Amino acid sequence: MIRINLLPQKRRVERAKSEGSQLWLGVVLAVFLVEVAALFIFHGLKNEELEEQARKNAELTAQIDQSKQSVAKHTEIKEKLARLRAREDAISKLQSARTGPTAVLLELARILTPGRGPSVDPDRLNQLRRDNPLAVFNPGWDARRLWLTDFIEQQRKVRLEGIARDGEDVSELARRMSLSSYFYDVKLLPAKRERDAATGLDLVNFQLEAAVRY
Fold it and tell me: Selecting from 3.40.50.720, 3.30.360.10, 3.20.20.210, 3.30.1360.100, what CATH number does the domain 53-214 have?
């Protein structure tokens, strides 16, 4: 009978298996460590991307808020300007209503002052003298031949009533008012001739309408 001692060979096999298992575990551990490192790197990159996106979102939000504030301020400024314009218009109208009638009365006083005449552009007056001498006023007219008894102004419309020595005096008044820069659309209404009981003179009761500008 031949006997073979297999014990050392068995030990070598077991030792090889043990070394193979350790090598496998080492490979697995290395792969695991590599995966863990890769995950850390990937996580770090994603965190940076997230922070960058959050920064961009914050900038966009700040721009949107600034735009909203600018729009709100723009609307507020427009409203303030509208209120200021309305206030200026109201002041202008009040100023015009306060000074306008006074200017019209002063112009009427100039027209009725002996030796004076209406406020008219000199170039226009010279042109009228050349084109139609009868359209200009008579500088020698005696304004004392005419008296005003009533003056009414409403919505920039004037109505005059008075007494004159004759119709030519009334025509001279209408002519001067038509030339004036303050009056336009002057209209003579039907007049009435009456004898004055105190003086015995024949006088003309007249009415006149005109629009005013101021």
Answer: 3.30.1360.100
